[in-house]
Specification:
Elements lengths: L5 E3 L3 H19 L23 H5 L8 E3 L8 E4 L1 E10 L13 H14 L13 E9 L9 E10 L5 H11 L4 E4 L7 E2 L5 H8 L5 E3 L12 E3 L14 E3 H15 L10
Parallel strand pairs: 2-10, 3-9
Antiparallel strand pairs: 1-11, 3-8, 4-6, 4-7, 5-6
Helix pairs in contact: 1-6
Length: 271
């Protein structure tokens, strides 16, 4: 802890501050009778969406009607977030000697596709999440300098909005680029959203908070019930060498969580 009241350390901002803030609010709210059953969960593997994280934990919990997901949002409520698709793509050609005019260069075919992907846009945009975002992040081809590559592999990171399921996005891309072999690593990390009429969201609005759409993924993608992403800290600090949280941000977060959750009336899910 430095003199400027900042606590430095990997994970302090994302999402240690949210964990301790939510735990403190849980302890406080548990001291009085609430119109709901309150559950606190600190789960693992959020960054990799692994099988031993939230998915495994939810099997052990009762029916969940609503969740607050602790992520650094400056304590503004993220009422929706983009989904994630990781696509393994391949173009195919025919090998030949680089010194002669022979073969079909799969790398050239891939670069043409990548350029088309750079300007490709899905037609439907979201009010809060904007457009679907595609980014080519990896590419690999060739075995040696004098051989025309007959295969080129590249990876596309796709951030879907709430206007498309991941499965729909894949089918659109396959239709647009039929010459490319497209294989999604997973379809389960879809975009998520909560109604602006939800009691928690309405209470946050009355308190002056500003709902927004988050471009980053969290465990919300694996929650089959309404949820809001909200926590202390700034997302831009996450995964940085000098990651930090300001202690006052934690104190404020505890107060805000308690204010927004205390005696909140939430409609129960169908059993």
């Amino acid at each position: 802890i430095e003199e400027d009241n900042r606590l430095y350390g990997l994970g302090s901002n994302d999402a240690g501050a949210s964990v301790v803030s939510l735990l403190s609010a849980f302890i406080h709210l548990s001291e009085t009778e609430q119109p709901y059953n309150l559950v606190f969960l600190a789960s693992a593997e959020e960054e990799v969406s692994g099988q031993n994280g939230i998915v495994k934990a939810l099997e052990q919990l009762p029916t969940i009607d609503f969740a607050v997901v602790g992520e650094p949002t400056g304590m503004q409520p993220a009422v929706c977030e983009k989904g994630l698709l990781v696509l393994d793509c391949s173009t195919h050609g025919k090998s030949g000697h680089a010194a002669r005019n022979e073969g079909i260069n799969a790398l050239y075919k891939a670069t043409e596709t990548i350029e088309a992907l750079r300007t490709f846009e899905f037609p439907l945009a979201s009010d809060l999440l904007g457009k679907v975002k595609l980014t080519v992040t990896q590419i690999q081809a060739g075995t040696q300098h004098n051989v025309i590559p007959d295969r080129c592999d590249f990876v596309v990171d796709v951030r879907t909005n709430d206007r498309y399921t991941n499965a729909e996005a894949v089918e659109i891309l396959k239709s647009r680029f039929p010459e490319v072999e497209i294989t999604p690593r997973s379809l389960r990390l879809n975009s998520s959203a909560i109604s602006m009429q939800h009691p928690f969201v309405r209470r946050a609005l009355l308190a002056g908070y500003k709902p927004f759409g988050s471009p980053t993924l969290s465990d919300q993608a694996l929650m089959p019930f309404p949820s809001v992403k909200m926590g202390p800290g700034d997302s831009s600090r996450s995964h940085t060498a000098d990651e930090y949280i300001i202690l006052e941000e934690i104190r404020e977060a505890i107060e805000v969580y308690i204010c927004l959750l205390d005696r909140l009336q939430i409609e129960k899910s169908a059993q």
